[in-house]
Amino acid sequence: xxxxxxxxxxxxxxxxxxxxxxxxxxxxxxxxxxxxxxxxxxxxxxxxxxxxxxxxxxx
Length: 59
Description:
Helices cover 31% and strands 32% of the residues. The protein is an alpha+beta fold. It is globular. This is PH domain-containing protein.
């Protein structure tokens, strides 16, 4: 599963190729303002999963 991390300042977003990769990104991006994390399905549809990972952003 792929994830897209979107930032508040309108810069390009980062992609994570797995949940483990996403958690590694979230640990590395402590000073960045993240506005949304979206799960990207194979057909291109995306769903917001920000609520599921909010606890990792607050640490």
